[in-house]
Specification:
The complex is a heterodimer.
Chain A: H1 4-11, H2 19-42, H3 48-53, H4 59-70, H5 73-102, E1 106-109, E2 112-114, H6 124-144, H7 149-156, H8 158-174, H9 179-196, H10 202-218
Antiparallel strand pairs in A: 1-2
Chain B: H1 11-26, E1 29-30, H2 31-41, H3 50-62, E2 66-72, E3 78-84, H4 86-110
Antiparallel strand pairs in B: 1-3, 2-3
Helix pairs in contact in B: 1-2, 1-4
């Protein structure tokens, strides 16, 4: 008989769940398939292994569906929103500091001075230079919370998303200018993404390494074997 | 038709939820037994394969409708046993009513019982 645990672990290795959860999922599904095959074999059904394999036509889709099912709203908050909010706070604090140090108040009315912040002003480029740090912080926090690479990137560009919303709101009052979304949304998003870049791959490798360890522990020396031929049969 | 009697648009998903919750309302079961029980009780009309069953079970677990725990069988096999929670029982009652209303409505429409 096939080693179902090894077989399932191999097919679900890209699911990127935390190693313990992944191991439990593999154990559970392997037990199901093993039981299914044993029952078909006992019933004298021809080629029980192929019939058992018919339970899953697309292992990648199953992995994706399991991952989604395991993630609740709280997990998403922990993995994306909280690191993203941290990045927004850092980015806004950095903007405030840059404006405080680099922008001189200008007269904007009788007996009034204003701090005018624009993309061609002195604070923009220094602020932009801090955004990779904000992006890196968000991606690192998201990775620590078990986020997938896409989720880490999303958390990293949160400051740009925040500025995008703010741009839209201000645009309703002052009108839209094509330069604003470029300089205050797209370019900041790219800067934050650059900072997040080193953190987009690490945990995935860690998961895979740990998963390989778990798989090698659970693999009791039985090779993959078995035919891949499929038949149209009723699932057990 | 009043709002309370309308059927959810996610009818397909709902039917799967109903099937799993209904068998778990009878007894705690592990995944394979759930699929087997559903197949047997519906005369093979409703079947769940691995690809359909486990994402649904995990999703129900995340929502707190079922609770899972590892148990060891006399043969030494480890099985993850699912049992219905209080939230799951609360979910099952309106789901049953909704489906009963749906089938009654279909019956009035297509005279299924005369077919």
């Amino acid at each position: 008989m096939r080693s179902w645990e090894h077989f399932v672990a191999e097919r679900l290795r890209r699911t990127t769940l935390p190693p313990q959860v992944q191991h439990e999922v593999v154990t559970e599904i392997a037990a199901h398939l093993e039981e299914c095959e044993a029952e078909l074999r006992a019933a004298g059904v021809p080629n029980p292994e192929a019939q058992t394999l018919d339970q899953v036509s697309d292992w990648n889709a199953l992995g994706r569906n399991i991952r989604r099912a395991k993630e609740d709203a709280m997990t998403v908050t922990k993995r994306i929103v909280m690191p993203g909010v941290a990045a927004v706070i850092v980015a806004l604090a950095a903007l405030k500091v840059c404006v405080y140090w680099l922008v001189a108040p200008q007269p904007c009315g009788p007996d009034m001075t204003c701090l005018i912040v624009s993309a061609d002003g002195p604070a923009y480029l220094p602020w932009l230079a801090t955004l990779p740090l904000a992006g890196a912080l968000a991606a690192a926090l998201a990775r620590r919370a078990g986020a997938r690479p896409g989720q880490r990137l999303l958390a990293a560009v949160f400051p740009a998303l925040y500025l995008g919303v703010e741009t839209c709101v201000l645009g309703l009052f002052y009108g839209f200018f094509w330069r604003i979304p470029i300089y205050w949304v797209i370019v900041p998003a790219m800067a934050a993404a650059i900072g997040a870049w080193p953190f987009l791959d690490g945990r995935r490798k860690a998961y895979q390494n740990e998963e390989e360890t778990v798989a090698s522990r659970s693999n009791r020396g039985v090779g993959p074997g078995g035919s891949e031929q499929r038949q149209l049969v009723e699932p057990c | 038709m009043s709002k309370s009697r309308s059927v959810s648009p996610q009818i397909k998903r709902g039917s799967a939820e109903l099937a799993v919750l209904a068998v778990l309302a009878e007894a705690p079961l592990h995944g394979y037994e759930i699929a087997k029980r559903i197949r047997e009780q519906t005369g093979g009309v409703v079947t769940f394969d691995v690809a359909a069953l486990y994402p649904l079970l995990y999703s129900m677990e995340t929502r707190g409708w079922v609770q899972a725990s590892w148990e060891e069988t006399p043969s030494g096999r480890r099985r993850r046993c699912y049992r219905l929670t209080a939230d799951g029982k609360r979910r099952l009652t309106p789901l049953r009513r909704e489906w009963r209303d749906f089938f009654r409505a279909l019956n009035r429409l297509a005279r299924l019982s005369d077919a």
